Amino acid sequence: MLWHLAWHYPEPVPMELHSIIIPSVAASLPYFIRARQCLVMYTIGAMKADAKKYQHMLNAIKYSTSLWPLVVSAYQKTITNEKEKAALEAFLIVLLAINSTYSLAWDIIMDWGMMQNTCAGGSNGGLTKSHSSCAHSVLRPKLRFGAPTSIGILFIDIVLRYSWVLRFWETDLFPNADIYILCTQFLEAIRRSLWNLLRVEWEHIKQNKGKEEDADDDVEMMEQKAFLAPKSRSMSPSFQHKQRS
What parts of the sequence cross the membrane (predicted)? Predict the structure, then answer.
């Protein structure tokens, strides 16, 4: 997208067929690849009878909701009838709202591990009934960046997930459509950078939790072995036979 804008700079991108297809295909390709990967993982999970295989299907649906707005937007640029273009605009807004809401819920619940257990924070680490414990209860017990930073990132992610609403003021805020697209792309880059902080944090917490569970299993196994007393040599038949001889 940026390459296409730079190629025609300082002139606006011409409304030709190749100028619509090339950036649309380039923007759709990452979502298509990720959706296919999720479907492959779902198939593998079904073969292994994985109880969580449905998550891959839900993730594939998330990426598919990103594809439809791109398809409708590309088709809309080829329409000259204003009435039909307005109808497509309303349909496009519905698709964008569905995609933003679905993706936001996935960010919070699946990618960041938040809002999965609202009672977890009250019983973890002896937290008192304060604003901090409420934040931990609503989000998750462990917040390595702290509650204020995590809430701030969450709020920014919510706002930037719906940055497409700037299209309603496109003519008032931006000199042309290309600048509007460029601005939304930069906002998306900022959102992804902040999203990555909590994503890596949650992955680190999950890995440490797995290591702690493995360590607890090892300790429990050692304790069980400690209770198994060895057989007394004096009670064995072979030892008694040696004593008689």
Answer: 15-33, 86-105
